[in-house]
Amino acid sequence: MAALTVREVVGAVREAVDPEVGVSIVDLGLIYGIRIDAKNNVRVEMTMTSRMCPLADAILADVELRLKRIGGVAKAEVELVWEPPWSPEMMDEEKRMMLGV
Predict the structure, then answer these.
(1) Where are the alpha helices (DSSP H) in the chain?
(2) Full residue range of the structural domain in which residue 67 is found
(3) Overall number of domains in the chain
(4) At what angle do helices 56-68 and 6-13 cross, to 10 degrees?
(5) What pTM did the predictor assign?
(6) How far apart are CA 59 and CA 83, in angstroms?
(7) Cβ-contact 30, 18 below 8 angstroms
């Protein structure tokens, strides 16, 4: 079994888009951590731009589905966290400029 890399995981979840703004969750700075253990169990810690995000469940499900599609993933887990609170400074600079933030 080949070991998964953080780069592979980031590439997969980069395709998940926040439907309200049309930007990748990676570029929005919503991914706080990625852990891959020796058995290729993947755990992603992420947040939302707001605790009131009406699409949080759909975004979390999308991320989990994309993780499970990576070849070799034994188990995929997505945890929603609120610390530290998200802020626009966490966004990719190019995306901030694109959105006028």
Answers:
(1) 6-13, 56-68, 93-99
(2) 6-99
(3) 1
(4) 130
(5) 0.90
(6) 18
(7) yes
Q: Give residue 1's pLDDT band: very low, low, confident or very high (50, 70, 90).
A: low
DSSP 8-state class, residue 41: E
Instruction: With respect to residue 28, please indicate whether it lies within any of the assigned structural domains.
Output: yes
Q: How many residues does the chain have?
A: 101
Query: How far apart, in whole angstroms, are the C-alpha atoms of residue 78 and residue 64?
Result: 6
Asked whether residue 26 is domain-assigned, the answer is yes
Flag whether 1 is in a domain: no
Cα–Cα distance for residue pair 23/99, rounded to 1 Å:
9
Locus of tokens 């890399």: 5
Q: Which amino acid is at 21?
A: V
The verdict on residue 75 lying in a domain is yes
| CATH number of the domain enclosing 75 | 3.30.300.130
**Token duo for residue 82:** 């609120």
* Rounded-to-integer distance, Cα 28 and Cα 85, Å: 13
Residue type, 73: V
Percent of the chain with pLDDT over 90: 83
